[in-house]
Structures are given as structure tokens and as C-alpha cells.
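REQUEST FORM: STRUCTURE PREDICTION
Request ID: SP-0412
Submitted by: Lab K.M.
Chain count: 1
Length (residues): 659
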Amino acid sequence: MQSRWLDSDAKPFLDSDLLLRVYTSRLLGQDADLVLHGGGNTSVKSASKDIFGQSRETLYVKGSGWDLRTIEAEGFAPCDLDYLQQLAFLESMTDSQMMQQLRLSLLDPAAPTPSVEAILHAIIPFKFVDHTHTDAVVAVSNTADGESILRDIFGREVLILPYIMPGFVLAQQVFEQTRGLDWSSIKGIFLMHHGLFTFHDDARSSYENMIELVSGVEDYLDQKGILQQQAVATYSPDTEDMVLLATMRKQISALAGRAMLARMNTTEAATGFASLGGVADFASRGPITPDHTIHTKAVPAIVTTDPQADITDFATHYQAYFKRHNDGNLSCLDSAPRFAVWAEKGMLCFAQNHKRLQVVSDISEHTIKAIQWGEALGGWQVLPPEDLFAVEYWELEQAKLKKASTAPALEGKVALVTGAASGIGKACVEELMQSGACVLALDINPEIISLYENSQVLGLHCDVTDVPGVMASIEQGIGYFGGLDMLVSNAGSFSASQSLSEMSDENWQSSMAVNLDSHMKLMRCALPFLKQGLDPAIVIIASKNVPAPGPGAGAYSVAKAGLTQLARVAALELGEDGIRVNVLHPNAVFDTGVWDEETLATRAAHYGLSVEQYKQNNVLGKSVTSRDVAIMARIFVSPDTGSTTGAQVAVDGGNDRVI
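STATUS: Completed
RESULT:
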């Protein structure tokens, strides 16, 4: 492991202790082998002035909810250092009481809640303190000879302590074990099954002590031929796999009591791990560190030839695990797995939203690497189940459950939107995303791939008239998000204006291919997955030209009328599968690619109106936007309209001919 410190990068941060703390914290956070998703914590002891101008000895410690990779100065909670140090002398304190005391120690009531390890940071007698859950170190400590290996590598330059839960009891342990210690004689503290602390009065030295100690462990693994030892294999999922994944996701959502996302990982590393002999045994022994149980539960599900039975088996064992360790005062979490080994195929991850899904995915990737290191060192050996349970059901985590905020209406749901790069399609993507959904965004415009910066959206370049391409795109989306619940079939084109007597075969057939045929083929490709969806719904974007056609638009009007009839048939056929199908008829939506300034001016002049008058030429006298259509689409795919199918709704500001 190499130091990321660069004098040129550090220069803007040298003006204050806190800014320097920000810089080196980010260096730690940039390395996933040290810190994952909000893990780890750092601090600096400095001085601050109160409102009276008096200097206060202050501990700036990472605040809850902040990520070291991107932390800012306001992400550090300023605490009364003396107050925190006095807390270490208390004989006992629950973690809930500790959190109250940490809030009381704050010198700024608007600051984030201090890290649960703030007291430990306070009693380490150095200006800068760094703490990580480094993969290599924890992998070694998860073996029978882990402690002796660490002693052989580092001798007396480190302190090695047995595992104890984070919080007040950990601070107490370090406080007692370091009484009379010559702190200058050690570079760090290894906490078995947990992580590593380093410290120094110089920010760079504290950070590089971390790099040095982790590198020492990595060098040991490298010398043993273990560091690069990771099984690899290849597997290409087929349509049947994707349908099974959607089926598992539906079952897991039922166990979780909420919509869940799923992801299939078939990288060579994931498939290699899933193909190892004995994987069901060592993968089920436990996580790299007990902290991960909060995100992933203690063990994965093992999925073989009967996925539904295997998931049911996991749920049964989880409930028994809870009963064994419950003291009678705990509320059982859901019994759904958070990740799984799919034998011979790869890894699966499950979570209630995309952010959490990424956390579980990253943790599982680091876990399978560490397990293989541990096995090669003599056997992966984690803490007893009661210790893992204690963290998963930590009183602080139970308290969070009681304060859980309301999730967005469509969180955990997956939508597919075609024609998603502009106009109504783009507005639908944004509306669904804001409601919490993950979206597969398809468009013939290749810019769709990078159009959406939000990771909730997977942009896919696809021509909706190309059936193999559509199927491949859907399956890619299923592998990424786990299923399909909502389809907004929007892609279309406005045909050149031609009377029937002038109609070219090319114009007619082109309109039918895009505005009718492609929707049927898209629906056909999506149905195996929608049938495994959660409150599944389809919204067809048709046109005002269906109830009120105009001359010269025959190719477009007839295709959209056929599309509406297709939707009516679909509503009749798919009702038994619980799939609702409804139709929207937009009109005069001028913020789409169909309309440019020249076209608008020409059409307005034709009616003797100004452009603004033309835009508002409807019963309500208002401009209709793509977002107006998107809002109606969102309403129709939501459970709020769960008793409505086969409906047709105009989104046109009120068109007198339609009315």
C-alpha cells in the first residue's frame, strides 16, 4: 500500500489543524481496502474559542453520517476534550447514555453527532488519530493464529487487543490496557476482528503510520503467496437466470416487508468464489468485521438449484438465530438475506435502495477476498455468533429503527422508460427517480449512457425496434437492479405530415414500426419480469390524436390508435397477473424535441395566434409540459392507483375536441 500524500495537494490544507485533518481523512477514505462507505473515523485535538473569546481544548472527531472519502470541515464534531476524557473514568455506561453524553460534549449544538469511538479518540494522547477497518489486517485477525502473526510481524511497536464491541466498553478497554504505557514506543493499536488505530502529533506521520502498518501485513501475505490468491472463473447469465433473479427478489421483498433491489455480480472474482469447493461452509462462518452485520447480516444465503427453497431456508435459520440470542427485549429485524452466494454463478446483493445496494455490493466484494486470504492462512475463523448478534442488534441500531424516516413512495422499485433521453421520457425518468425508483433508461441516442449522473439510473443505448437489443438491455437492467415493476412505454416519432392520397409506404411503415410494433415487442420482452414485479404496472404514452385525430397525420394517428387498442387488450390479458395497464394521451407538449422555435412560430401564425397564446390554447389556458405527463405516469405506476387498469387519461390542458 502506497502513501497518497502529495505536498502539492496538501498545501491548501496547511492553514489549520482541522483542514489538515480533512485532507488526511480523505486520503484514507479514497482507499477502499482501508475504509468502506462511512466506515473508519479520524480526529484531531486542537483549540477553539467560545463566544467569550476563551480558548477551549477541543476534539474534532468525525461526525455520524459522514464519509471519510468526501468529508468536509463541518463533518467533524467539535467536542469538549476534557469532558470526553473524564467519561473514560466512569465505571459503567450504556451506549445510549454514552450517545447522550457525546451530544452534551458538543461545543456546537448544530454539529453532527460524534463518532461512537469519540471517547477512545480523546484518551489517545496524540494530536491526530486515524482508525480504519483495513481488509488485510482484519483478514489476518480472522484466523486462529492471527494474533501471533501480527506479533511476529510487528513485535513491540504495536499494541494488540482482543475484540470488544465499539463504544464505551472499547474505550474502557483501551483506557485500562494503556495505563502506564509509554505511548511513544508504539505506532498503532490492533483491535482483533475490528481494525487498526494509528496516531501522531503530525498529521502526515499518523496517516503514514497507517500505511506502513497495513503494508507490513500485506507484505507478509505477499511473501506467503496469499495476497493475489483469489479464485477466478467465468459465467454468462442467460434469460432463465434473470427470471430467477427477479423471482428471488420478489420473495426477498416479501420477507423484508418492503420493496428490495437485487444485483448479480458475475465478475471473474465473484464467480470464482461461488465455484470454490466448500464455499457454502466458509462463506457462512461470518463477516470480516462485526460492524458489517449492520449492512449484510452475519452470513449470506447459499443459493443452489432451488433458489426459492434456499431463501426460505435462510429465513428459517435467521429466525432461529434471533430466538437463540434474544434476551426478550429486542425487536426482530426482517429475515431476508442481504447477500448470497449463487453456486457456480456468482454473488447476489439485496437492499432497500440503490445507495444501500452499493454498500452491500462493495462489502461483499471485500469479504470474498478476505475469506480466501483467511482460508489460505489456515482457516477463516470469525467471532462467535453471540458477538455478531450483539452488533447486529446493538441498542444504538435498535434505536435507529424507532426513528426511521418515511421512505420515498417508490423506493426499492424498478422502472423501465423508453425514449428516455429527452422530452416526456426524460421527465418520466426524473419524476420516478425523485420518487425513489431506480430506472432503466433506454434511448436510441447514445448520449443516454452518460446523460444521468445519478446512479439510480442505468442509461442504455437501444433501438426499440431491435428486439434482441431490447431483450439484452432489459436483462442487463435486471442484473443491475434485480427486477422490473414499472414500464413506461414512451418511445415514438412524429411522422411527416401526409394526406392518405399522398401517403408513402415508407412513412406509413416507419410510423407503425416505431409507434406500434415496437411497443408490443417491448411489452413481450418485459412481461416475464413484470410478472415477478412488485405492484406491476404499464403506462402507454399514446396521443390526443387517438380520440381526436387531425388531417395529414394518418400514419401517426392510426399507429397511436392501434397502440391504445393494444393497451386495452393487454389490460384484459394481464389482469390475472396483477399487471395494470393504463394509457396517457398528451397533447401540445411543447418542451419536446418535436417542437422547435420555427415550428412553433409557423403553427401559431397559422391560427393567427402568438406563440404564447398558441401554447396555452386549451380549456385551462395553460402550457402543458413534459413534467405534467410524467406526474400522471408516476401516479399510474404507483400503488395509489392499484385498482385502476384499462383507463385512458388526457394530459392536454383540456382539448375541446377530446372533451
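NOTES: The CA atoms of residues 248 and 448 lie 29 Å apart.
Reviewed by: T.R.
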